[in-house]
Amino acid sequence: MSDFFNDISEQIDRNAPLAKRMRPVSLDEFVGQEHVMGEGKLLRRAIEADKISSLVIFGPPGTGKNTIANIVARKTKAAFVEVNAVLSGVEDLRKVIAIAKERLFTVGKKTILFIDEIHRFNKSQQDALLPDVENGNVILIGATTQNPYFYVNPALISRSLIVELKALSNEAVKTIMENGLKDKERGLGNFKVELSEEALVHIAEKSDGDARMALNALEIGVLTSKPDENGIIKFDLATAQESIQKKKIVYDKSDDEHYNTISAFIKSMRGSDPDAALYYLAKMIYAGEDPRFIARRIVICASEDVGNAEPMAIVIANTALQVAEFIGMPEARIPLA
After folding, report:
1. Alpha helices (H) along 230-329
2. Could you tell me if residue 61 is left (phi over 0), alpha (psi between -120 and 50 degrees) or otherwise beta?
3. Based on the domain organization, do 62 and 78 belong to the same domain?
């Protein structure tokens, strides 16, 4: 029976996306984030010594948050329990914590509780964690794409090490892709692939530091390309462009990047920098921002920042708002600009 389930597990692993299969399982395989995972850095030392304290890891998608937790799970002698904040409630947390307490009391074994998407926990869910994190009944590792100082309970923050991951460099992404091509057990090493330097650079640049996006593009390009008469898959620039067609914009409509971008847009207008203003305008439009929201910000800038210095500014801004509302996108981008 166990062999049957092991076979199923292995089959599932083989059918998983390349990004999942190539997730590093050791510190030696980890690429990037040298500021926290480089030789001699605090987090790496803590993992190597199996002396992890509660921590919250945040950063853009595809930069290694879950990978670090996965490495800790393999390295630690403590019990490792994973919870997804989207699917779990307070009752689930209480059950996990109760088992962790019993384990600590009976066999002296600690429990590391990994919570993915911890920013999705509401205040009551986060409050339920606080006493046991403070008393050492569980060691918390939280992962989030959001700034934890805005989304995580300040009491939890004060009891945790905050680790910020950066978008991966192009060189790091290229290394990860090359590893995926070479690995015969977990990667695409059993395919004969000729990946051009142009294609490699293109995917690395377009992925914006997201290793998952780069590996997904690499996999779909390889699997959908026909080999030539010699069985070789030619992965050129054209294939790369098809595999990762739209550049990802780091932008969310309700959180930090939304307000950072509109603030930069307004400051660009206030500072009489048309190039910067057009850049941030294009970024918001490309990311799908409501043109009426943008137009209202222009009207506000014209009335507050320009005012009587140029009375026609408010007239022009208001006209742009009315036209944008009337014609809608994509044409609204013209009067807004």
Report:
1. 237-243, 256-270, 274-286, 291-301, 312-327
2. beta
3. yes
Report the amino acid identity of residue 154. P
Identify the DSSP state of 309.
G
Q: Into how many domains does the chain fold?
A: 3
Indicate if 160 and 174 belong to the same structural domain.
no
The Cα–Cα gap between 301 and 299 comes to: 5
Helix (H) or strand (E) holding 223: helix 211-223
- Same domain flag for 58 and 108: yes
Is residue 252 helix, strand or coil? coil
Which pair of tokens denotes residue 56? 């919250």
pLDDT digits over 33-45, tens only?
A: 888 888 888 888 8
**Enclosing H/E stretch for 66:** helix 65-75
Neighbours of 120 (CB within 10 A): 16
Task: Give the tokens for residue 186.
Answer: 């977990």
Of the residues 243, 272, 293, the one at which a domain ends: 243
Find the angle CA(270)-CA(295)-CA(310) to the nearest 5 degrees.
45
Give all strands of the β-sheet with 111-116 in edge-to-edge order. Answer: 79-84, 111-116, 139-144, 55-58, 161-164
Within a domain: 59: yes
Are the beta carbons of 207 and 175 closer than 8 angstroms?
Answer: no
pLDDT tens-digit readout, 110-144 = 888 888 888 888 877 888 888 888 888 888 888 88
Domain hosting residue 74, numbered range? 33-164
Tell whether 100 and 156 lie within a shared domain.
yes
